[in-house]
Write the structure tokens for this entry.
Amino acid sequence: MSSSEERLFFALWPDDEVRAGIAAWADGSAGRQVAVDSYHMTAAFAGPVCADVRRALEAKAASVSGEAFVCVLDEIVWLGAGDIEALAPSCPPPALLGLADRLQRLVAAATGHVARYRYHPHVTLARPGAGDRGWSSRPPEPVRWAVADYVLCRSRTDRPGSYDVLAGWPLS
């Protein structure tokens, strides 16, 4: 990544109440926990892009339509080689999957890079080192997230694991 590029992605960005619910699931996780203010659900990853591509992503994002929806986060999943702990919906809403698909197509058109992975919606709780949580009691209550918009984010190079929200668009 050159110094003139930014690492961008489209995401769902939770409010403080949803963040608190997610944090209840993260409490007690092993490994390096994600900061509460960095919780998000990536919908489409653009990667390192120049200013022209960023402007194209922002301009085209305004035309991406979708309806607001509720996403219920209710299960722990293990990603990568099983060392990334995440909270996910056991039944992803069709509106979420449709929005992610439209944003991934927008990214592919703007960058020429097509995602080589199957989309699995999740919010990362802890990074490498996370072991099996094994709750001693019932897991926390499911988190009901009323999603009304999506955002374009930039990964901070000066603070890994931190992000800036650059722009946002409402869902109908």
The longest helix spans residues 94-111. The chain has three helices and ten strands.
